[in-house]
């Protein structure tokens, strides 16, 4: 698949089915494909939120939004010291099947005996068809919103995904967007989008520079948080 074709159509299910099929066919064995970076680059943004949100004997509900074949959600599942239920969701059934097969073959174990992980085919513009309102503690978006915003016809879908995230997040929950988009641009979009949804706060931190590109963590919560 040509890069220009991919960039223009990243909001389309068929694009990702083709991308993951071609990517898998080129490899002799399965290998996770990471957009931007892997779990180790951002675990210090993710894991503290699980610790602060933990209540004894309650599974924290975590969503890896647009997981593709990334190991991010699996890493949260395998490294969290508190019990979590991680749902890795993607619109591409090809990606979901590859990840389901991978976890069966590798038998990846959780750090906490009560933790669970699942891979589901899900259109992220329709989260409320799978999750109840105010049911999730943490949503992790590594490049999914970026893909939509950069697509020819994806901006409306990006706004709808954000609306859905705020609908299914608990009032104490968090949405983390990992992106290479400059804060001058992303914050304006986020602040305008959340304003339409009601009360929500937006902050950001620098992830750092990787391979010459600066990355950021945008933190959206249904209640005010301190600006970083």
TrEMBL record:
GO molecular function: methyltransferase activity
One GO location term (cellular component): mitochondrion
GO biological process: methylation
TM spans (from-to): none
Subcellular location as annotated: Mitochondrion
Start and end residues of each Methyltransferase domain: 60-176
Catalytic activity: N(6)-methyl-L-lysyl-[citrate synthase] + S-adenosyl-L-methionine = N(6),N(6)-dimethyl-L-lysyl-[citrate synthase] + S-adenosyl-L-homocysteine + H(+); N(6),N(6)-dimethyl-L-lysyl-[citrate synthase] + S-adenosyl-L-methionine = N(6),N(6),N(6)-trimethyl-L-lysyl-[citrate synthase] + S-adenosyl-L-homocysteine + H(+); L-lysyl-[citrate synthase] + S-adenosyl-L-methionine = N(6)-methyl-L-lysyl-[citrate synthase] + S-adenosyl-L-homocysteine + H(+)
CDD domains from the UniProt entry: AdoMet_MTases
Keywords: Methyltransferase, Mitochondrion, S-adenosyl-L-methionine, Transferase, Transit peptide
Pfam family, one: Methyltransf_31
Family membership noted in the UniProt record: Belongs to the methyltransferase superfamily.
Role of this protein: Protein-lysine methyltransferase that selectively trimethylates citrate synthase (CS) in mitochondria. Seems to conduct trimethylation in a highly distributive manner rather than in a processive manner, and thus introduces a single methyl group per binding event.
Protein name according to UniProt: Citrate synthase-lysine N-methyltransferase CSKMT, mitochondrial
């Amino acid at each position: 698949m040509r890069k220009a074709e991919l960039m223009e159509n990243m909001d389309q299910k068929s694009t990702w089915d083709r991308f993951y099929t071609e990517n898998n066919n080129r490899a002799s064995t399965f290998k996770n494909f990471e957009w931007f970076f892997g779990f180790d680059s951002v675990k210090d943004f993710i894991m503290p939120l699980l610790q602060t949100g933990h209540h004894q004997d309650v599974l924290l509900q975590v969503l890896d939004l647009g997981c593709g074949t990334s190991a991010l959600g699996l890493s949260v599942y395998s490294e969290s010291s508190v019990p979590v239920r991680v749902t890795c969701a993607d619109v591409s059934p090809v990606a979901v099947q590859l990840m389901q097969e991978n976890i069966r073959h590798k038998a990846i174990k959780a750090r906490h005996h009560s933790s669970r992980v699942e891979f589901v085919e899900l259109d992220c513009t329709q989260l409320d068809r799978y999750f109840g309102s105010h049911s999730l503690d943490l949503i992790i978006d590594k490049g999914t919103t970026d893909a939509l915003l950069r697509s020819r016809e994806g901006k409306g879908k990006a706004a709808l995904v954000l609306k859905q995230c705020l609908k299914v997040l608990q009032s104490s929950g968090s949405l983390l967007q990992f992106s290479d988009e400059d804060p001058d641009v992303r914050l304006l979009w986020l602040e305008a989008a959340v304003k339409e949804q009601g009360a929500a706060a937006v902050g950001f931190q620098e992830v750092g520079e990787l391979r010459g590109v600066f990355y950021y963590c945008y933190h959206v919560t249904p209640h005010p948080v301190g600006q970083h």
